[in-house]
Amino acid sequence: MPANTSTDRRRASVDVAGPGLVALLIIQVIIGYEWLTSGITKVASGDFASGLAADLKDKSGTQRTGTRASSRRSIASETSMPVSRTPGG
Q1: 64 within domain boundaries
Q2: Which residues span the domain enclosing 17?
Q3: Diameter over CA atoms, the chain
Q4: How many structural domains compose the chain?
Q5: Tell me: the pLDDT tens digits for 27-79?
Q6: How confident is the model at residue 25 (pLDDT cuts 50, 70, 90)?
């Protein structure tokens, strides 16, 4: 009879985990389908690359980039510690 108890325990654990695993599988299939169709649409659409380049160009203005670079330089110079190049100093 011990073999039956082991089999019953396995069946019980599969039954308990079954609905959760099925729900997870369904969610993964839906996300995978959306990801795949989105990728196919981007590849099939001829204007995706040029449209992406135009969007990136619009969102990154030269004035803003210059401001960021200068502020990074000023923060780096304010927070940097002097480095002693002499041994032991």
Answers
A1: no
A2: 8-43
A3: 82
A4: 1
A5: 999 999 999 999 898 888 877 777 878 888 888 875 555 566 666 667 766 66
A6: very high
Note whether residue 23 is domain-resident.
yes
- pLDDT of res. 83: 57
CB 48 within 8 A of CB 42: yes
The structure's pTM equals: 0.40
Per-residue three-class SS string for 12-72 = HHHHHHHHHHHHHHHHHHHHHHHHHHHHHHHHHCCCHHHHHHHHHHHHCCHHHHHHHHHHH
Return the amino acid letter for 49.
A
Asked if residue 18 belongs to a domain, the reply is: yes
The H-or-E segment that residue 4 falls in is helix 2-44
